[in-house]
Amino acid sequence: MENPNFILTVEDLSVSFDGFKAVDGLSFYIEPNECRVIIGPNGAGKTTVLDLICGRTRATAGSIEFKGAELTRMREDQIVHAGVGRKFQTPSVYEDLTVFENLEISYPRGHTVFGALTFRRDGDVDARIREVAETIFLGDFLQERAAILSHGQKQWLEIGMLLIQDPQLMMLDEPVAGMSVAERKKTAELLNRIIRDRAVIVIEHDMGFVADIATRVTVMHQGKRLSEGSMAHVQADPKVVEVYLGH
Ligand SMILES: Nc1ncnc2c1ncn2[C@@H]1O[C@H](COP(=O)(O)OP(=O)(O)OP(=O)(O)O)[C@@H](O)[C@H]1O
Predict the structure, then answer these.
(1) Ligand 1 close to Cβ of residue 221 (< 6 A)
(2) Domain 8-91+166-245, architecture per CATH
(3) What is the ipTM for the molecules in this complex?
(4) Ribonucleoprotein as a keyword (predicted)?
(5) Is the pTM of this model over 0.95?
């Protein structure tokens, strides 16, 4: 399906591990400013889909097209460079560095070769770091070491480390796991702000959080797409109730 309105086109995607099809003929399409949430029972293949999109796992068949580029043929670093950012489940911030430094080392500096430009750049980098820190609710923590942050704040910092690279597609695996109710609310607020400038794919089990963030929901089961649509649509789908929501 060719549609310039989609930033990501996943078609007939499959991967087998020793003959077991973890993802099996999956297709879905993401628009530029949507938050797509993937839900489904354990082992449905959700994390494997993100692994396939970011190049960590190679597809056995099918296609993943991002802004016209075929990701299944690209290396992980090329995919990052093309504008796809991925956050894993456990936070991996640098505990001994400050919030500012964590954001600073994540800033893409590949193009600041010329000394004359560097000075102005540094001012830009500084402003961008402060802007991102405000967005992730850590504006008052810039000089604090990451080690003193709460689990939820570390998750936000890691989202900030992705944001500073300005990916056009951001993927998050269970971003509110281990967070308090208040932190979940703020994370929903954060994601709703983030999708003004990019598309986001989130894997999530907390249905209250899903309701707060999802533009559309894709339900996976046994590597396949079981249902898709608005939260209300998938919640009312008897197939979804049977394999997932009813449990
Ligand atoms: N690298 C791998 N090698 C072998 N099997 C794998 C590999 N990665 C995933 N699998 C298997 O593929 C299936 C799908 O796993 P996946 O982690 O994608 O499911 P999930 O929907 O994310 O589940 P959960 O909600 O528990 O995280 C599982 O049976 C898993 O054991």
Answers:
(1) no
(2) 3-Layer(aba) Sandwich (3.40)
(3) 0.94
(4) no
(5) no
